[in-house]
Amino acid sequence: MKRKIWITFAVSAMMVVATMTLATTGKLLRAQENKQENKEDTVEQQKNSISAQDLKAPNLHVVCVESEIPYEAGFGWVVSYAWDEVSGADQYEYEMEGEIQGCSGTTKETSLVFSIVTCDGEKSQTVKVRAIKTVNGEITYGPYSEISVSPKEIIDRPSNLKVSTTGDEVTLSWNKVNGAESYIIWKGTGSGLLHEPYELIDDVTTTSYSFGKLPVGTYSFWVCACKKTDGYLMCGYYGVGVKYEVYDVIPKNVQAMQASATRLRVVWNPVNGATGYQVWRATSEEGPFTALGSVTGTERVCVGLTTGNTYYFKVRSYVENNGARKYSDFSEVVSGIPRAINPENVKVNGISSTKALVSWSETDGATGYQVWRATSEEGPFTALGSVSGTERLCIGLTSGTTYYFKVRAFNDLNETKAYSAFSEVASFTTGSVSPSNVTATTSTRVNLTWEKVDGATGYQVWRATSEEGPYTALGSVSETERLCVGLTLGTTYYFKVRAYYLCNGTKHYSEYSDVVSAVPRMMPPENVTIDWIAATRLRVVWDQVDGATGYQLWRATSEEGPYTALGSVTGTKRVCVGLTTGNTYYFKVRSYFDNNGTRKYSDFSEVVSAAPIPPNPPTNFKAKMYRRIWCDPFSLMFSWEGDIDEDRLVYEIFFATSEEGPYEKLCSSRGNWVEWPTGKGIYYKIRTVDCGVYSDFSEVVTPEKW
């Protein structure tokens, strides 16, 4: 069972702390505090009327006695006293007497804690406490209560403290102490026994304690014996501390892996808590081994090796503390033979229906490469010969046949080739390798697209104004489309595409695709919308068409028509006026291009529609009376909320002498306020006029004084 221990590090012979309590007395003292805080004013009045003879002697008792944690100055003990609250008391006077040292004072609390550095089993301490009451400056005292306590009951310290391990489990044990009922265990982490932080681990009734598996590090352990005396817990001095180092050190899963023809990479699993690792190498399993130096990671690349020779490796970890290294035992010995690494990224790209280009990534240290081919993934494979580069052109293939290829690297050693393992198998089916499904869209620009050719690095686009040519190369692209600009409207253009494969800086081209043609012409406007609606007006907008000279807007009162041309504009919007509020109108747009006095039109855009709507009446209409100086006549200030458009919107204010009317027009404004002299009517209302169409009137208001 875990519990807290009260710890006080005293720097003088004795220290009294009047406001601190032990964890083991928390409930008792908190109950006393709550009891005192919850008293009502009437209780306070009763308290002031209590005479000196009514003050009772405090019910004094010892809460606990405990020894201190070890520290450099020595060992000590702590005594905590508490008493019940005395009715009517303002505070309490205490005196501590004895053969160690005495002290006295007053406190408003109902507890005391004494921390004593020196302990003498033959000496004791007596504490006396009495209640005090002050009324109108006159102090009266109640009778004393007293109680004594001595550390003479503190029991012996544990002996033969030691640490043992079984597998990963760490166990602390000690000799039994006569009279002990339990033992408190402390654990520290650091380099010393007395100058480090300690953590309370547990209190047990046995003479051993298992920590399970501890992380790598240095630990200190302390144990003290305890028993209960007169209802309080008393603990003896701590036994001599013991240090223990946890160090699980031997690297596991050591491997010697291929790195190149002259290199091996030695890797292993990390060791928890290790500062670093040391790799040793030999040309014989029995040695002698040579240290290759230290690393902090979990791998070491060994260079300068001889291709084809066998090398042996072992690894040990170490912990570095204050400049000194503590090494683990060596790992198991592993071996490796440096040789060329098998090639990676093998690819097969078709050059024609009877040719294919096999390529791969360069392998560090390889003298050359050998390419093998088969018509089945399982083989048999036939060697096509050796090359020093990273590609091989395979010719004489049969169209429509699937071929399988694999590659291995080699090193020349004393007229003998040392081969790597084979690469993964790559396949290719011969057939058409040129771009297919080439299409061209028509506008002042032609956007040419085609299907992707597997494995192609890029594509080359060619153009002509005759199907037979001559053709001009437009450049290369890596994607499957090309935008051709600078074309002439009405002219027919012809296009063809071929793929290429880049290997070692050289482009290998496929056959050409089929020829496609396109005639550039104007494209219809897109994203036609009606973005502004008034009572008798609508505004139609659209996206700009590349190369267009202008645009023509058509309108109808039915989606099917008939449509009437409203004229041409060079911009991308048109305001339509003179419309009827509530009617629905339909619009479509087409672009055009003027060429030598001839206008060439695009197709029409999609149809859009909208209906003009009547204006909304103003909101938040207010009329306020004010005058600039006290002797001036009053003026009227009208304000409201509504849209501002000086080209079409007008606000009209009307007045009357009665709320029912009749109303006459007072004034108008294109803004959202107007100032007017007084003298006409006391009731006002306002409406919006949009191109001759009227909104409803606002609510009627009467002027307010400003």
Would you write up a description of this structure?
- The radius of gyration is 51 Å and the shape is flat.
- Strands 4, 5, 7, 8 and 9 form a five-stranded antiparallel sheet that branches.
- Strand 12 and strand 13 (198-204) form a beta hairpin.
- It is mostly beta strands.
- It contains two helices and 57 strands.
Structural descriptors:
706 residues; 5-stranded antiparallel beta sheet; flat; 2 helices; disordered N terminus; mainly beta; 48% strand; 3% helix
Quick gist of this model?
Helix content is 3%, strand content 48%.
Uncertain segments are 1-50, 67-75, 117-121
Q: Describe the biggest sheet?
A: 5 strands, antiparallel
Instruction: Let me know the average pLDDT.
Output: 78
Oligomer: single chain
Distance, first to last CA: 79 Å
The outline comes out as flat
Percentage of residues in DSSP E strands: over 45%
- Estimate percent helicity: under 10%
Compute the CA-based radius of gyration: 51 Å
Count of extended strands: 57
Alpha-beta content class:
mainly beta
Give the SSE layout.
Elements: E1 14-17, H1 26-37, H2 41-48, E2 60-67, E3 77-83, E4 91-98, E5 103-107, E6 111-116, E7 125-135, E8 138-141, E9 145-149, E10 162-166, E11 169-173, E12 182-189, E13 198-204, E14 208-212, E15 217-229, E16 232-238, E17 242-246, E18 255-260, E19 263-267, E20 276-282, E21 290-295, E22 299-302, E23 311-321, E24 324-327, E25 334-336, E26 347-352, E27 355-359, E28 368-374, E29 382-387, E30 391-394, E31 402-413, E32 416-419, E33 426-429, E34 439-440, E35 446-449, E36 458-464, E37 472-477, E38 481-484, E39 493-503, E40 506-512, E41 516-518, E42 529-533, E43 538-541, E44 550-556, E45 564-569, E46 573-576, E47 585-595, E48 598-601, E49 608-610, E50 619-626, E51 635-641, E52 649-656, E53 664-669, E54 673-677, E55 683-690, E56 693-694, E57 704-705
Parallel strand pairs: 50-57
Antiparallel strand pairs: 1-6, 2-3, 3-6, 4-5, 4-7, 7-8, 7-9, 10-11, 11-14, 12-13, 12-15, 15-16, 15-17, 18-19, 19-22, 20-21, 20-23, 23-24, 23-25, 26-27, 27-30, 28-29, 28-31, 31-32, 31-33, 34-35, 35-38, 36-37, 36-39, 39-40, 39-41, 42-43, 43-46, 44-45, 44-47, 47-48, 47-49, 50-51, 51-54, 52-53, ...
